[in-house]
Amino acid sequence: MTGNDFIKDFPVLMQKTGNGKRLAYLDSAATSQKPVSVIEAVEKYYKVNNANPHRGSYELSMKSTDVYENTREKVKEFLGAESSKNIIFTKNATEAFNLLASSYGMDFVNADDEIVISIAEHHSNLIPWQRVAKVKNASLKYMYINEDTQLTMKEVKEKITDKTKVVSITHVSNALGTINDIKSIIDYAHSKNAVVIVDGSQSVPHMKVDVSELDADFMVFSGHKMLAPMGIGVLYGKLDLLHKMSPYIYGGDMVEYVYEQDATFDAVPFKFEGGTQNVEGAAGLMAAIEYLENIGMDNVHAIEKELVKYTYEKLSELPYVKIYGTSDVDKRCGIISFNIDGVHPHDAASILDSHGVAVRSGNHCAQPLFRFMGENSVCRASFYFYNTKEDADQLIEAVKAAYAMFEKWR
Ligand SMILES: Cc1ncc(COP(=O)(O)O)c(C=O)c1O
């Protein structure tokens, strides 16, 4: 299996760029492209099933509810969760982290407690904890990565202590692609009675992730990075924790009884889903998971690993390219961040774009990480199973061209 087997399913990938070049889309860590089956599932929802879910007692509303709830069941199976009650739909990973910080952090973190995160977190798994730490007089502690950008168990054991209430950590770094040994971190945090939140934004779309095997307390990810539409995300949580947490968004649909001065709330997961939900997003997420299941998550991972190895080797041959992240390709997901000597990453990204290569440049919503590494910004090429060796070759040629373009200033 290679990306060539799948490109035909992705209309965006079939088009040429504005300057007539074939498109090498290497920004799937930001958002993935969507296959026809997902686009059609959204269209079908509006043609056949659209009504407000959960509220109506008429047939169409019930059909809409079914679309939503069947997707919850699908996500439960995909993640290996115990029950569909473990699955809460959010807008995206960012909203899921805000929910956790607000409903778990504000309720259960107290003065002098510790919240432990890693220096490689996306801002969405960092800023909400800064707020909890400030409001609750708790401390926000960081686990730092080593020279090979890996988080060692030595560091983990030094930072997670008996005072740690929450450990919130990414499975895969969006900026460096490094895969954390998440199972060992979870086990150690549990030995200290801390609750562990895993940011699955860059792992769930790319590899088999089983929340029960990992024994994660919470897991967060966004649908749009795994073929689904934007605007639907997932928060998995263990039931005993979800039951004791306060709601996050208050209003319609999440209540049981409402009185003039008080209200009681619906059961988990509904108490966390106030207001009209993104049913079209759920319809798309269902089709997205079906598409991924048809390929098999192990195959998705294998295709990406092959591509990353190929690209890493080719880029390493260019003496003027600095690659960030671990040199152990087995510990790297489909992400390669790099800089070209003497070319600002934003310039590099524009030049690459003129060669039909879409990469992202900047600090990738991980400013503390780049400050720690002594860098301002990098270019990031991120792969998905629909990418090909031709995409990688196009990237390499464009990098050579970018370097050559700045030759006269050297
Ligand atoms: C590791 C990681 N966590 C969280 C997020 C936030 O995702 P979203 O913008 O979909 O909320 C991202 C997005 O890039 C990410 O890569």
Automatic annotation (TrEMBL):
GO molecular function annotations of the record: cysteine desulfurase activity; pyridoxal phosphate binding
Q: Which cofactor does it need?
A: pyridoxal 5'-phosphate
Q: Which SUPFAM superfamilies match?
A: PLP-dependent transferases
Q: What is its EC number?
A: 2.8.1.7
* UniProt KW keywords: Pyridoxal phosphate, Transferase
PANTHER family xrefs? CYSTEINE DESULFURASE, CYSTEINE DESULFURASE 1, CHLOROPLASTIC
User: What protein is this chain from?
Assistant: cysteine desulfurase
Taxonomic placement? Bacteria, Bacillati, Bacillota, Clostridia, Eubacteriales
